[in-house]
Each structure stands twice: as structure tokens, then as C-alpha cells.
Amino acid sequence: MAPPPSPPPIRGRGAQSAERSRRFAGQDREVDGDWRDHVATLDGPPVKLRTTVTAERAKSVLSYNTSPDIGFDRSVNPYRGCEHGCIYCFARPTHAYHDLSPGLDFETQLFAKPDAAALLRQALAKPGYVPRPIALGTNTDPYQPIERDWRLTRAVLQVCLEAAHPVTVTTKSDRVLADIDLLGAMARRQLAAVAISVTTLDLRLSALLEPRAPAPARRLAALEKLVAAGVPVHCAISPIIPAITDDGLEAIIARAAAIGVQSVGYIPLRLPHEVAPLFREWLAVHFPDRAAKVMGIVREMRGGRDNDPDFFSRMRGQGPWAQLLSARFAAARRRAGLQPLRFALDCGSFAVPPHWPEAPGQFMLDL
Predict the structure, then answer these.
(1) Closest-CA residue to 136 (of 160, 105, 114)
(2) Residue 239, preceding bond cis, omega within 30 degrees?
(3) Could you tell me the CA-to-CA distances from 104 to 14, 18, 55, 61, 84 in Å, in that order?
(4) pLDDT in tens, 1-55
């Protein structure tokens, strides 16, 4: 008897399923035969998955970390979840914390923090606050499509400009150009730098990996326009997926250098927690012919596991394939005339504007 046919790929989305993780859940709901247990069989899968956005009333927006292998100690994320749908996104497991699927829920059930700018003002105005660069886009993309309507990232940048607070932006969207006025003004005062991720130059492959992110050519064009505006920029070739995207490493570095990008970097594929089974599922749908090879190299780089969570080694991998990748990157960077570069941002000009309601010496009536 022939096996049943595989379901068709879900078009326009990265994940191929919406299975929820129980990692943070309490006791599972008992299957009792009510409508929730039969809704999928009654109606079938949705014809088209819709994106929803819920306002999240956060109590704070400035997050701190002590990780020794990343270049920032604080970050702001105006959104939770990301419509770009990048199958490899290491932030997917954050949806599991809210008993939502790290798969399709992560890219369709989004959360926005409308008070992000006000909460940031409060945090910066606290007595004794010591400024260091704030990283925007460390968890989910600050310029994903819903930024067009919500404009929360722009509001955060305006707060940082008002207070002369340094900020770095990481995105894979040319929507960042909507704020080139703010970023240019901040860059002239050494207050801003932007990193744009270019995973592949192959348009078809990009559409499978990052279905709702702008095309690679648009990201490169955005880098070029930021360079022209005097904004320090970095091209992040991240992640590099063995046997899928690694063959484009040298071409991306050459293109970035040709448009004036000052800095390039890379990170091999990481598959923390629920990302690993989602990525395996994606491979089975789109690259069944090489799925075993890809995961074999990944496990070789990660000490025999799908993921290596250890500091430092998680960013570079280990073993022959990781060593070869490092050598290829170094050689390509030398050929392009690029050197290792860290952007020096100004932390000494920070000052809380006197017109802020939360500024020292002022108070607000609790009406």
C-alpha cells in the first residue's frame, strides 16, 4: 500500500506546522472530544493564514544580558514574533514561553508594545543610569512589515536621538530606510550603526528561507543608501547554512565591499530548542535530497548535537567544516580589502532632556 501523499508546502510562510511546545506549559489539557479537538478535521487547514497583532502592555522595555560573546549588554524589542518567517530564527522559542507555537504562531500571531518609547524614556531617566549602546533587533526584526503601521522602532529612535543615546540596529529589511533621516542625524553624532543581514543572493532560496523578508537585492540597495547617508553599516552573513547557502559566502562579501560596506561578519546556523525540529521539517519539505547531509554537517559543527549552547563556540562552531568556513571568510574579506571593525559609538553625550516628564526634578500627578 502506497504511503499517503505529503501535504503541499504552506506558501508564504517559513514554518510548516503550528505544533505548540509544552516546555513552559503546566498540565496538558485533557482531550475530551469537544470542538477544539475536532476543529481541524471539520474545517481543514486555513486557506490563507492571516497575521494578527495584539497590543502588549509591557511593564518595561529595556532588557539586559550578561552574555560574554555578544557585543551589547542591553536591548529593546518593540515587537514579539516576526512576520518575516525566517525558518532558522533563533527567537522562535520565545513564543513557546507564551504557550504559542514557535512555528506558524511565531510568524502570524504577533505582539506590539505601543508604550515602548515611553517605557524607554522612563528607563533612561532613572537616577544613576549609565549609557551603553542599545541594540534594536536582537530578538525579532524591528523593521518587520507591521512597523509600517505601528512605527514603534521610529519612536524608540526618536527617544535615543533626543537623549543622545547610542543605538545599533539589526534588520533584514530595507524598511530601515524610512528612518534614514533619524539614523543619518544620529550617525553624524556617532550615535548609530546599522547591520543588515544578507543570507543569500539567490532570490528563490531567499523566498523559501525568509518568505516575507525583502529580497536580497533590496537589502544590498539599503546598505548602499545608508553608506551614502554616512551611516556606519555592517553586512551580517547570518546564518550560514551548510550545503544550502554556504556557497554564496564569497559573493556576498564581494558585493558588500563594492557598495562601500565597512564591516562584514558571519554566524553558522544555530538550532536552539524548538528551532531544530522546525528546521528539519523545512528541510524535508524543500530539500529532501540533502536533508541528511545538512544535518550531518550541523551536528559535526555542534559536537554531535543539533545545537551547541555554549558561549563563544555557539557563534563559530567546531570541527573541520567550521574551520574551513572560517578560513574561507578570512580569505574573502582580505580579497575585498575589509578589516575587522568595531564601530565606536559616543556614550559621553547622553543627557536626559529637561522636557521629558520623567526627567529628574520633575514629577507626574497620578490622576
Answers:
(1) 160
(2) yes
(3) 8, 5, 19, 25, 11
(4) 444 445 556 666 755 555 555 554 544 444 444 444 444 454 544 556 789 999 9
pLDDT digits (tens, 9 = 90+) for 309-357: 999 899 999 999 999 999 999 999 999 999 887 889 999 999 999 888 7
List CB contacts of 185: < 8 A, sequence separation 6 or more.
Answer: 161
The grid cell for 115 is 508604550
Residue 205, amino acid = L
Neighbour tally for 252: CB within 10 Å: 23
C-alpha cell at 275: 528551532
CATH architecture type of domain 49-271: Alpha-Beta Barrel (3.20)
- What's the pTM? 0.86
